[in-house]
Amino acid sequence: MKPNRSIPASTVIPVLIYPDVREAVAWLGAAFGFAERVRIGESHRAQLGFGDGAVIVGDVRHDRRPPRPGEVTHSVTVRVENVDAHYERSLAHGARVIMEPTDFEYGERQYSVEDLAGHQWTFSETLADVAPEEWGGMSVAAD
Fold first, then answer.
1. Topology annotation, domain 15-134
2. Do residues 78 and 86 make contact, with C-beta atoms less than 8 angstroms apart?
3. Going edge to edge, which strands form the sheet with 96-103?
4. pLDDT tens digits, one per residue of 44-102
5. What is the pLDDT of residue 143?
6. How many whole angstroms separate alpha carbon 138 and alpha carbon 143?
7. What is the spatial distance between Cα 20 and Cα 59, in angstroms, rounded to a whole number?
């Protein structure tokens, strides 16, 4: 891919809608450790980075809306170095717990929370390299 400083370098970039873009940028930075890399208008959009990943925060307009209570249309998974420390950080900023840190047979320790606008996030720390066949999954050759 050609580089372009106007878009994150990540291959897949979720766009999440928030009622207040500036509040979301501040909260996602404080609670989850995201860093703003590009601001588009004062409150229209912002590009945030985390490691080699990215997310775009967009404003409410036309048919774009944040999640409604009681509905889950998506979840974002982010890999972190230390799930327990990250969990404590998110709690300190008011994230609503969906699942406390839990170790899974596929070699990950994960927790899930809801952010200030109702988006669901799962944060995952790798504990071990486990073949999918060891826990009931199946490796599939990529084309």
1. 2,3-Dihydroxybiphenyl 1,2-Dioxygenase; domain 1 (3.10.180)
2. no
3. 75-79, 120-126, 108-114, 96-103
4. 999 999 999 999 999 999 999 999 988 888 999 999 999 999 999 999 999 999 999 99
5. 61
6. 16
7. 7
